[in-house]
Amino acid sequence: MAPPRTYRCEAITLSHTPLGEADLLVTMYTRDQGKVRAVGKGARRSTSKLMGHLEPLTIVKLSLAHGRNMDVISQAEVVDGFATLKGDLTAIAKGQYLAELVGGFGAEESANPGLFQLMIDTLRAVAANPQSDTPLRFFELHLLQVSGLSPELYQCVECRVELEPGAHRFSPNVGGTLCLECSPDDAHLRPLSLRALKILRHFDRSNIYEACNIAIDDELAEELKSLLLTTVSYWLGKEIRSNSFLERLHNESLSEV
Amino acid sequence: MTQDNVPGAAPSLSRLVQELNRLPGIGPKSAQRLAYYIIRLPDEEATALADAVTAAKQNIIFCEHCQNLTDASPCSICSDPRRDQTIVCVVEEPLDILALERTRSYRGLYHVLHGVISPINGIGPDQIKLKELFSRLAQPDLVELVVATNPTLEGEATAMYIRRHQGREDLRVTHLARGLPVGGSLEYSDETTLSRAFQGRQEL
After folding, report:
1. How far is A136 from chain B (nearest CA, A)?
2. Which of A19, A62, A91, A228 could link A130 by a cystine bridge, Cβ 3.0 to 4.6 Å?
3. Across the interface, do B164 and A89 touch by the CB < 8 Å criterion?
4. What's domain A87-256's superfamily in CATH?
5. What string of pLDDT tens digits covers the 257 residues of chain A?
6. What distance separates the 2 farthest-apart alpha carbons in chain B?
7. Shortest Cα–Cα distance, B80 to chain A (Å)
8. How far apart are CA A155 and CA A235, in angstroms?
9. What are phi and psi of B133, to 5 degrees?
């Protein structure tokens, strides 16, 4: 029996680009199919029934038809448009950062419900507190976990000895934390403070709401950001483009204080 | 097109196909159809097309005030004394000016950004004409800035960035109304559009 021509799915839209006269090429992350790129026919016309439903950072229920080259969106209904998040410039920038990472780590035709839920939980946490960077740090660590790239935080990755309280080192290249005795020849090796290691372990064991309740000072926040950004970029294999705008907003907010 | 030559086509025809294929919205098949159409045109029509492309590329410049594409700077709108010089409408693209001019309901000036802030595509404030806008806003006779970016995520982000950085407390900053399009339908409208339509409801 031939497979059905149409299917339904729940998705979070990541981005879209104009296609042809009035169509939209929408990139989304679905709960059951992973990353999907589909065409919204006529979606840029002001009277299109799809208009407004396919904006980036929106949870939508979709009906799609299998196309020869790309699937076609036949119906769309907004589940959550994240209106609060979209009313704040910093929150939008963070949302786009998350979308770029999910688009980069998510694979087509490969479901990862953990990644789908992580994206939604993080968007909600960002909307609740746009100025806090903790949701992004939690997202980066758990993004690595749900992608099968979880860094080792409890044992030295070289000698497998349980890490004692103290300063350690970290490298994405060898897969996580190293004790001070082991010194592999690794250009990505960097120091890891005990405070940063404790926060990473806390993130590892918590949900996002528990993680966001912890107070993190500026120095520790910078160490965590640098470590996790480097690790995520390492595995992504390229620069995270949306981070430069996020950094710009961050620096502007510091200069206003 | 990724291949160097279109199989079975003469090299010069193949080059024309490849150049047309670089245009937005033109796929390989459309490029081939257009190329064969151009080849079949009378010589004078094909030359007129080539001349038009060359002339446009050589003569079109940015207006020094509004950054719109023009043959002469300042452009016809900026140099028109009948236009209201106290109000500037910010749009994303030159085509947006044509759409607004068709309404005949706006008689002020424009500023074209030539894009929107789109961090996911690597486009930040420095890649669009925002610096030119902010230096223009220093003119004291300007009383209103209408931000007419598209009501998309990136258009809204750009509007918020402009509002945050425009730097004048006495400047009225507005944006176009949000709501239902003429000929649209409540049933198919998304929640954000409907809630904004409610917020902007008017006396009958």
Report:
1. 16
2. A91
3. yes
4. Recombination protein O, C-terminal domain (1.20.1440.120)
5. 666 789 999 999 999 998 888 899 999 999 999 999 999 999 988 888 888 899 999 999 999 999 888 899 999 999 999 999 999 999 999 999 999 999 999 988 888 999 999 999 999 999 999 999 999 999 999 999 999 999 999 999 888 888 888 888 899 888 899 988 887 777 788 899 999 999 999 999 999 999 999 989 999 999 999 999 999 999 999 889 999 999 999 888 877 76
6. 67
7. 31
8. 21
9. -65, -50
